[in-house]
Design a protein that fits this description.
Blueprint: H1 15-32, H2 41-59, H3 63-66, H4 74-98, H5 106-120, H6 133-136, H7 140-143, H8 152-161, H9 169-177, E1 185-192, E2 209-217, E3 220-225, H10 227-233, E4 238-242, E5 246-252, E6 274-279, E7 283-288, H11 293-304
Antiparallel strand pairs: 1-2, 1-7, 2-3, 3-4, 5-6, 6-7
Length: 308
Amino acid sequence: MARQRTPSVFSPRSPVVVMALMFLGGYLEAEYGKSWGISGLLFTITGGVGITYFAWCWAGRTPSARAWAAINRGPALALIGIPAFAFPFFGVGAAAFFGLPMVIALPFGLVSVFCLVLIFIGVKDPPKWWGPRWFRKGEHKKDRKGRQPQDALATLTESYAAPPPAVLSQEEVRREFGHVAEPVVQWKGGWVRDPDTDEQDHALARKGTVEGTLAWYPQGLGFAATKREDSLRGKTTVVTVPAGEITGVEVVPARAGADGRRRRGFWMRSPFRRLVVRTASDAHVFDVARGRAPQVAAFIKEQAGQLT
């Protein structure tokens, strides 16, 4: 089965884009409709597009037609915001353009009143009783069960909406090194959990890598994922290496693992050399931002006792 992608907020089928186009059409109608001699036409077209989109979303016959339900605030826009403006735009526009009595716009206005009432009473999401049956039953969630959004903007939107764990990775590192532990120095980078995989944890991630901060504490080396990673992964990601357990520090080529062998594929991998920190039982591989792996390796060697 083809992998479904959560659309970006800027996707042509996103309710954000449709709402923006409706406001643009309304502005052009208000400013230039009469001077262009097409009074009501732009309202009619804009409202018609909005109503068609609303009907398409309501039917939800394909995964693409249900994708709006996975966008942050998508249901509120698709089921409340868009019909609140589309129906009166179409009713008033059609009456003005075709020279019909304005009373025909009344039924369209009633739809708008219903939606506007929901907006003004502070409803941020559609009530449980409002929406198509498949939406109320949560069938849209099955389209993406077990899948991360593959669109970067959709993932970024989700990262702000998803709640982070109760304890963040940064706090967990400090706990492991002692509650009062503060980093001596820190660097942006990532922990390479798997140098061989071609999979991304989400659309903003590098392949096999967790974004975060690498820091040296008085007790040793610590890595903590960013808050965004914690939210998207739904858990903390921490690596700690006590100074006394470090047996070696080295720099390997870009895209390499602890064995020093380059992996194939440039896409979504760091172009810089990597840092490897070894212990008696393990080897940890890190990306370091701006190609600073050699400087970080030299610093760790000095702090850990001039390791060779």
